[in-house]
């Protein structure tokens, strides 16, 4: 709970902090990595540091959290915090990291804002930080407990059992057993050793339905160093360092209509959700909206077609940016909801590039879907927080 005194101070200084928060977070990461270089090589995505996405996402989360506290000083923005906590848990983040972050973040605030950081201002924003940090620590502790693991046991070495090409630029890896159970729609982190000694981490949605004794995940070659390593260096019989599963894109109970909207490799969590629905003989209506550049690039097209036979309530709508194939697309261009019926009470899940999700979310809201019922998955910094 934000104290009345701090609430007044935060409200008065939020415009100044908000205007400088991008500079603050860039300064912060420079300080943090200078003092703890292993955090850049072995925890944070250094590509997202280089292009500015991670500082932008951190800036957005701080501003969003402070704004939420001003609107309601008692109830924190749990949905935003849950997304961050699941990502942290998949990385094995420990509570001991939060004081380190605090020291370097407030060093950056003091340097950027200078004399404007009076003792009163520092005290108020310290309160904001620890409200957010302690909420995340509590959520992450609960996630470790629910997974029946300790934070130091998040990671395990798993053998690669199978490797197959889904498209010319997408490979599916199957690893394990043994593996912890997971909910359809969740993801794992994968850490790989790179030639310069870095141990970089990326997240991948799990493809399997319920009860699988292994993990399968798809890696599309993106030009990044981790996808290149997985495509070029990993073969059957090798081992991969894989985290326990986490993620908030999971099915709600009930029989309300669903919209699963994806683009490119964002189809992967949707497949897991669909396979779960098929395995449980779900009768709820499901609309799949998928966008892809070409039919040849459409990973899991055959699997999607097979699921249409197993789920009588499934309606598949596909758009290709170039001329579509015979099935299932009848459209060329980008995903548009014009003319598609969106049932009342629909819950929607989105996964794909930010611009795609932003467009589809806007169209869903215009079609009457409640904002609270639109969920999304993004692998990388959540830049949605600053929009």
UniProtKB/TrEMBL annotation:
UniProt keyword Nucleotidyltransferase, yes or no: no
Pfam families the UniProt entry points to: FAD_binding_6, Globin, NAD_binding_1
InterPro entries: Cbr1-like_FAD-bd_dom (IPR008333), FAD-bd_FR_type (IPR017927), FNR_nucleotide-bd (IPR039261), Globin (IPR000971), Globin-like_sf (IPR009050), Globin/Proto (IPR012292), OxRdtase_FAD/NAD-bd (IPR001433), Riboflavin_synthase-like_b-brl (IPR017938)
Protein's name in the database: nitric oxide dioxygenase
Swiss-Prot/TrEMBL catalytic activity: 2 nitric oxide + NADPH + 2 O2 = 2 nitrate + NADP(+) + H(+); 2 nitric oxide + NADH + 2 O2 = 2 nitrate + NAD(+) + H(+)
Limits of the FAD-binding FR-type domain: 153-252
Cofactor: heme b
Domain of life: Bacteria
Ranges of residues in domain Globin: 1-141
Gene3D superfamilies on file: Globins, Nucleotide-binding domain of ferredoxin-NADP reductase (FNR) module, Translation factors
EC number: 1.14.12.17
Similarity comment: In the C-terminal section; belongs to the flavoprotein pyridine nucleotide cytochrome reductase family. Belongs to the globin family.
TM stretches of this protein: none
Keywords: 2Fe-2S, Heme, Iron, Iron-sulfur, Metal-binding, NAD, NADP, Oxygen transport, Transport
């Amino acid at each position: 709970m934000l104290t009345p005194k701090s609430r007044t101070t935060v409200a008065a200084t939020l415009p100044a902090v908000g205007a400088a928060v991008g500079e603050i977070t860039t300064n912060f990461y420079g300080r943090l990595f200078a003092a703890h270089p292993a955090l850049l090589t072995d925890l944070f995505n250094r590509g997202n540091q280089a292009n500015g996405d991670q500082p932008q996402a951190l800036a957005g989360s701080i501003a969003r959290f402070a704004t939420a506290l001003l609107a309601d000083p008692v109830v924190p923005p749990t949905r935003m915090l849950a997304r961050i906590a699941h990502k942290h848990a998949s990385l094995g983040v420990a509570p001991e990291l939060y004081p380190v972050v605090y020291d370097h973040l407030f060093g950056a605030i003091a340097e950027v804002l200078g004399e404007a950081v009076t003792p009163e201002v520092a005290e108020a924003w310290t309160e904001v930080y620890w409200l957010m940090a302690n909420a995340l620590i509590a959520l992450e502790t609960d996630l470790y407990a629910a997974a029946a693991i300790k934070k130091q046991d998040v990671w395990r070495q798993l053998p690669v059992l199978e490797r197959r090409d889904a498209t010319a630029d997408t490979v599916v890896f199957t690893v394990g057993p043994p593996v912890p159970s997971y909910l359809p729609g969740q993801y794992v982190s994968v850490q790989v050793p790179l030639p310069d000694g870095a141990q970089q981490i990326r997240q991948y949605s799990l493809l399997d339905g319920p009860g699988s004794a292994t993990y399968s995940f798809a890696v599309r070659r993106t030009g990044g160093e981790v996808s290149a390593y997985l495509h070029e260096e990993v073969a059957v019989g090798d081992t991969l360092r894989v985290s326990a599963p986490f993620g908030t894109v999971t099915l709600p109970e009930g029989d309300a209509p669903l919209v699963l909207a994806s683009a490119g490799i964002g189809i992967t969590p949707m497949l897991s959700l669909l396979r779960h629905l098929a395995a449980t003989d779900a009768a709820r209506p499901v609309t799949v909206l998928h966008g892809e550049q070409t039919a040849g690039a459409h990973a899991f097209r055959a699997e999607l077609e097979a699921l249409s036979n197993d789920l009588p309530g499934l309606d598949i709508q596909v758009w290709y940016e170039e001329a579509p194939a015979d099935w299932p697309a009848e459209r060329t261009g980008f995903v548009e909801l014009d003319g598609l019926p969106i049932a009342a009470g629909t819950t929607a899940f989105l996964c794909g590039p930010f611009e795609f999700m932003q467009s589809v979310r806007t169209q869903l809201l215009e079609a009457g879907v409640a904002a609270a019922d639109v969920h999304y998955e993004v692998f990388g910094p959540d830049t949605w927080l600053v929009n």
